[in-house]
């Protein structure tokens, strides 16, 4: 994998990662609103590009447990989709402002491992071989699996096949191992989301991010811990 950013580029690529029910989507919305106070344009994207029909079909089938069981084909589809996502969506948006994505390559590594038994190091190596661009920073939304499961239960939507308490524990542990092993070589900020999201917590995260990218703000004092 290669860094998405360049030293002379003004705007950062920020990926929010975490298990289902972690609260990352809610955080992404709050974070985007806060960043718009210092950047006129902030672009938000989901996990996929959906620009390749065949890859999209495999990804959707995999998410709904309708895949053909060929893990290699599914992984290749995700890789192909990510390349397109960066090239045609993320990269152009970075020319005009910060970009936030709700999941990116770290989630691919973790979910393929937990749900399909694909070694995390193997997926990371495949991404490196393809020179997959990485975010400038990953915000890992650190939410205890039991709390994430409670939040999932409050949603007014049908559960996905893998949304179960035991799977959430496995996913949480896999995220931790992948981060510790630096399988996505970039800076990681842990956002401890153990209660209801507050404005003050979001502002602390924004301040910490601005400390990484002072070109966005030159006059704010920032904390060292999120």
Automatic annotation (TrEMBL):
The keyword Nucleotide-binding applies. ATP binds at residues 18-25. Residues 16-180 form the Thymidylate kinase-like domain. Transmembrane segments: none annotated. GO terms for biological process: dTDP biosynthetic process; dTTP biosynthetic process; dUDP biosynthetic process. Its EC number is 2.7.4.9. It catalyses: dTMP + ATP = dTDP + ADP. Belongs to the thymidylate kinase family. It comes from Micromonospora sediminimaris. Phosphorylation of dTMP to form dTDP in both de novo and salvage pathways of dTTP synthesis. Keywords: ATP-binding, Kinase, Nucleotide biosynthesis, Nucleotide-binding, Transferase. CDD domains: TMPK. The gene is tmk. This is Thymidylate kinase. Coiled coil: none annotated. The keyword Magnesium does not apply. GO terms for molecular function: ATP binding; dTMP kinase activity; nucleoside diphosphate kinase activity. GO terms for cellular component: cytoplasm.
């Amino acid at each position: 994998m290669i860094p998405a950013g360049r030293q002379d580029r003004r705007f950062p690529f920020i990926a929010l990662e975490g298990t289902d029910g972690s609260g990352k989507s809610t955080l992404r919305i709050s974070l985007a609103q806060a960043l718009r106070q210092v950047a006129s344009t902030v672009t938000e994207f989901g996990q996929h590009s959906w620009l390749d029909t065949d890859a999209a079909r495999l990804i959707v089938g995999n998410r709904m447990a309708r895949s053909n069981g060929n893990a290699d084909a599914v992984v290749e589809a995700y890789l192909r989709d990510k390349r397109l996502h960066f090239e045609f969506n993320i990269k152009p948006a970075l020319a005009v402002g910060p970009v936030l994505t709700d999941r990116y390559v770290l989630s691919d590594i973790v979910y393929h491992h937990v749900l399909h038994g694909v070694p995390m190091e193997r997926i990371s190596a495949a991404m490196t071989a393809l020179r997959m661009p990485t975010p400038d920073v990953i915000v890992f939304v650190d939410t205890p699996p039991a709390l994430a499961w409670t939040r999932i239960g409050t949603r007014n939507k049908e559960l996905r096949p893998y949304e179960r308490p035991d799977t959430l524990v496995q996913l949480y542990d896999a995220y931790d191992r992948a981060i510790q092993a630096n399988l996505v070589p970039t800076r990681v900020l842990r956002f401890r989301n153990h209660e209801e999201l507050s404005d003050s917590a979001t502002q602390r995260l924004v301040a910490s991010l601005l400390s990484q990218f002072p070109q966005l703000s030159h006059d704010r004092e920032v904390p060292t811990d999120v």
